[in-house]
Every structure is written in structure tokens, then in C-alpha cells.
UniProtKB/TrEMBL annotation:
Gene3D superfamilies: Metal-dependent hydrolases, Urease, subunit C, domain 1. Residues 57-441 form the Amidohydrolase-related domain. Carbamylation allows a single lysine to coordinate two divalent metal cations. CDD domains: D-HYD. Its cofactor is Zn(2+). This is dihydropyrimidinase. It comes from Glycine max. It catalyses: 5,6-dihydrouracil + H2O = 3-(carbamoylamino)propanoate + H(+). Belongs to the metallo-dependent hydrolases superfamily. Hydantoinase/dihydropyrimidinase family.
């Protein structure tokens, strides 16, 4: 890593500037980390660094809404610290990410403080979601603190990982009610954790020598897990509807889950589904690879599905957004599960590849337009930046927006060849320049990043998703308050 680029005045000349709903050939002038103007021609003095973007796209840097950097999980910790993971992200055109704070000894305050420390050396802007892994009055008070004092506006509830992070329906409901009252977004990891646990316990403890023999039985189990993802997604949707709060389903991996979300959206419920790069690009055949290391790389939860689910998720993207769920473990860590596949640390890579994969899979195949691409990856329109209430600071090339900008050359192609990847992958379209906070941090295949240049981005509550939602009303809000000193019968009569 080199020193971060220092120029505080930049002119990006002659590129096609793309926002979520519009593109135009224009110059973009940046000063002190902020976009100052966008005009057909801008003249500047010698003190300004000029970047020629003729024939290329000038777009907002990506926001990855789902990462786990320096995450202690399943007896180990993800390979990247904040700085390393962010540097990789910047090389791939992502300029902001939102990571998940895991409570420490049950405390959200201790949890966020630990993450503030982890993120101190950041070279890229970041925000936090908060995971809720139990429920009591203290948790409820701490959620309030996280929103009102810590600048977070989203909480993730795990319906899986029994015995570790999982929360039951009663607490899920309490959490949803609290989210609603705070104007915060409820997020769910939707899998039926009890059933997954049961299936895993009963079967398939050995992966190594027995790998081929158990293959078919495991396959049946994974098919069943699809139903369990759909079931949990539907359950979360119904509970969110019951309290009338918006819902965000993370890492949607199956057609079943996707269809539940589509159905709810059709009926007017505010539900967002988040496919991830691995689910769009991979299929489960890798999971059955005879080489443990190759197979274990693909192990994540919910699992990557068979061909068909990827295409369906791609099709659903026209109304959505895309994250990575970056939770990377190396082969030594994955080998923790060589004798018991339940112990393979769950998680995949993607923070560096997401922007290129989505370009290649979606734009090159003409499934979406270039403006849609901006909407999905970096977030204006109705996606990440709006969902997390940070638009137009992020996700837009507009005067006043942060100067987080990428220059993408649609006529350049390259191979993703890192040793850690299971295959070589040709992608068309290449992020040639990344500008973060007004500094050129990626250019000529070289990173120029420095510790401490990334900022914590506060995300205020009551995004557009909360706007006007109470007009709809819900069963819970229509119930009269419980009686005091009145008999249940009288109370029910009055209702
Ligand atoms: N998804 C996964 O397998 N690992 C990361 C943790 C999570 O998001 O559930
Ligand atoms: Zn999850
Ligand atoms: Zn995750």
C-alpha cells in the first residue's frame, strides 16, 4: 500500500456521468472531497489534477450493504481487518460498506465500541448495522441508544444459528416493534434455525473420506433447506406486516424466498430483498467438488443453490439492490470443518468482485441498463443509499455529494485470477479509477490508501421506507389497550 492520493482538487473530464435515472456526457469538478459541479465543460487552473474519462462511465462508487470484516464467528475470525477488506473493496470500485456489529457479552454498547476500535484504521467510509441476538429491557433501551446516539438505523435478527445468534419469534416480534417505534429498519437472516439444526445434527457429520457417499443425502438436505429459507422469509414477512414495519431480508439465496418477497411487495408491503454476489454468480455444483478446499470455500448460510436460482435472483434484481455478505475465511480456517462439515466457518468472498460481477452478469447481458447498474450497486433511486437514508450524500454524482466516484471502462476486460478464487473469470468492464472522499485511491492497477482516511457515516432513522406507513394501519395498532381492573369479557365487548 502506498500513501493515499492527496489532490484536493480534481476534474474528471469528458466521461458519461451516470446517476440512477439519467446519464449525460459532462465534466465533474471535485474540491475537498465534495462534488462541486457537473457541467458540459468546466475550465480549471494548473493546480487541479485532471483525469480524462472520455469513452468511459463516471459513476458513484459502490455501497456494499452487507459485510463482515474482522468478524469473530464459528471459533475463528474473518481473514480481513477493516483496512485490508476496504482496500480490496476500493480496488473493485466500492467506496462505502455497512458492517454488522455483534453484541459483546450481550451488550450493544460494548459491541459497537469494539467495532469502533476495529474500524479506526479505515481507508474507506463505513456504517454499522447492529445484530440483536437476545431480548430484554436492556436490549430495548440499548437499541434506542444505537439509533439516537450512535447513528445506526438498522438491526439484524438471526432466525438461524441455533445456540449462537438465533432469536425466537417472540423476541423477533419485540424487536420488530422496537424498530418500528425508532424508525429503524428490521433486517432478517431468514432460515428456520430449529429445522436446520435438526437436519445437521441427525446427519452428515463427516465430509472428508465419506464425502462422496454422503453427497446424495446431503443434496436432499440442501433442497430441504430451500424450503426452510422460504418458510422463514414468509414468517418474517408476516410478523413485520403484523406490526406494520418495513423489512429487509439479507442474503436472499433461493427462488422460494424471492417469491415470498415478491408476493409481499405486490400486496403493498414494504419488503426489500438483498441478493448477494455469490448467489447471482455461482451455483451449488462447487459444493460437491471432490476437493474439500474447493467445496468448503462455497459454504455459506443460506447455501448457494443449484443453477436456476442464480438466474431467478438476477431477474429479481431489476427491483432491488445487491450486497456481498463478505465473510471470508482462508483454507486453514475452512479446514476446521474437515471432519464435521457443520464446523466449516460459514461465509464467502466478494467485496472486491461485486461491482465487476454485477456489470458482467447484468449489464453485459443486457438484463439491466447502465443507470439501473448505478441504482443496484451504488444506490440512488430507491436502493441502498435511500434505504439507509444516506442519499444524496452517497450514491449520486450531484453537487454536494461526497466525491466517491468510479471510472469504469466498458471496453476493457480482465480476468479475476486471485489464488483464492476457485476459477478464472473473465469479466468485461473494468473499474480503472476509484476516487474515495475526493482522493484517487485506485489507478493504473495500484492502490493508494492510507490508515484513518475512512469516516464513520451516521445513518439517520425514518428513511422513505417509514414514510407514511402508519396510514396503512395494522392489526396490532387497532387492538385496544389491555384492560386495567376491567374484566376480559367487558374488554372484548368494547373491542
Ligand atoms: N452468511 C454466512 O454464511 N456468513 C456470514 C454471517 C451471516 O450473514 O449470516
Ligand atoms: Zn446472515
Ligand atoms: Zn452476513
Amino acid at each position: 500500500f502506498c500513501d493515499a492520493g492527496t489532490s484536493s482538487k480534481l476534474l474528471i473530464k469528458g466521461g458519461t456521468v451516470v446517476n440512477a435515472h439519467h446519464q449525460q456526457v459532462a465534466d465533474v469538478y471535485v474540491e475537498d472531497g465534495i462534488i462541486v459541479s457537473i457541467k458540459s465543460t468546466i475550465m480549471v487552473g494548473d493546480e487541479v489534477t485532471v483525469i480524462d474519462a472520455t469513452g468511459k462511465f463516471v459513476m458513484p462508487g459502490g455501497t456494499d450493504p452487507h459485510t463482515h470484516l474482522e468478524f469473530e464467528f464459528m471459533g475463528t475470525e474473518t481473514v480481513d481487518g477493516f483496512f485490508g477488506g476496504q482496500a480490496a473493496a476500493l480496488a473493485g470500485g466500492t467506496t462505502m460498506h455497512i458492517d454488522f456489529v455483534i453484541p459483546r457479552k450481550g451488550s450493544l454498547t460494548a459491541g459497537i465500541e469494539a467495532y469502533e476500535k476495529k474500524a479506526r484504521k479505515s481507508c474507506m467510509d463505513y456504517g454499522f448495522h447492529i445484530a440483536i441476538t437476545k431480548w430484554d429491557e436492556t436490549m430495548s433501551r440499548e437499541m434506542e441508544l444505537m439509533v439516537k446516539e450512535k447513528g445506526t438505523n438498522s438491526f439484524k435478527f438471526f432466525m438461524a444459528y441455533k445456540g449462537a445468534l438465533m432469536i425466537n419469534d417472540e423476541f423477533l416480534l419485540e424487536g420488530f416493534k422496537k424498530c418500528k417505534s425508532l424508525g429503524a429498519l428490521a433486517m432478517v437472516h431468514a432460515e428456520n434455525g430449529d429445522a436446520v439444526d435438526e437436519g445437521q445434527k441427525k446427519n452428515y457429520r463427516t465430509w472428508n473420506n465419506w464425502y462422496v457417499i454422503i453427497l446424495n443425502t446431503c443434496y436432499d438436505f440442501l433442497c430441504c433447506v430451500i424450503l426452510l429459507e422460504g418458510e422463514a422469509t414468509a414468517r418474517a414477512i408476516h410478523l413485520a406486516d403484523f406490526v406494520n414495519t418495513p423489512l429487509y431480508v439479507v442474503h436472499v439465496m433461493s427462488i422460494d424466498a424471492m417469491e415470498e418477497i415478491a408476493k409481499a411487495r405486490k400486496s403493498g408491503q414494504r419488503v426489500i430483498g438483498e441478493p448477494v454476489a455469490s448467489g447471482l454468480a455461482l451455483d451449488e455444483s462447487w459444493l460437491w467438488h471432490p476437493d474439500f478446499e474447493t467445496a468448503a470455500k462455497q459454504v455459506m448460510s443460506p447455501p448457494i443453490r443449484k443453477r436456476g436460482h442464480d438466474k431467478a435472483l438476477q431477474a429479481s434484481l431489476s427491483t432491488g439492490l445487491v450486497g456481498t455478505d463478505r465473510c471470508a475465511f482462508n483454507s486453514t480456517q475452512k479446514a476446521l470443518g474437515i471432519d464435521d462439515f457443520q464446523k466449516i466457518p460459514n461465509g464467502v468472498n466478494g467485496i472486491e468482485e461485486r461491482m465487476h460481477l454485477v456489470w458482467d452478469i447484468m449489464v453485459e447481458s443486457v438484463q439491466i441498463s447502465v443507470t439501473d447498474y448505478v441504482r443496484l450497486t451504488s444506490t440512488n433511486g430507491c436502493q441502498n443509499a435511500r434505504i439507509f437514508n444516506i442519499c444524496p450524500r452517497k450514491g449520486a454524482i450531484l453537487p454536494g455529494s461526497d466525491a466517491d466516484i468510479i471510472i469504469l471502462n466498458p471496453n476493457s476486460s480482465f480476468e479475476i485470477t486471485a489464488k483464492s478464487h476457485h476459477s478464472k473469470l473473465d469479466t468485461n468492464g473494468k473499474v480503472e479509477v476509484t476516487i474515495a472522499g475526493g482522493r484517487v485511491v485506485w489507478e493504473n492497477n495500484e492502490l493508494k490508501v492510507a490508515h484513518g482516511t475512512g469516516r464513520y457515516i451516521k445513518m439517520p432513522p425514518f428513511s422513505y421506507l417509514s414514510d407514511g406507513i402508519d396510514k396503512k394501519g395494522c392489526l396490532l395498532s387497532k387492538l385496544p389497550p389491555s384492560p386495567s381492573g376491567e374484566s376480559q369479557i367487558q374488554h372484548l365487548k368494547s373491542f
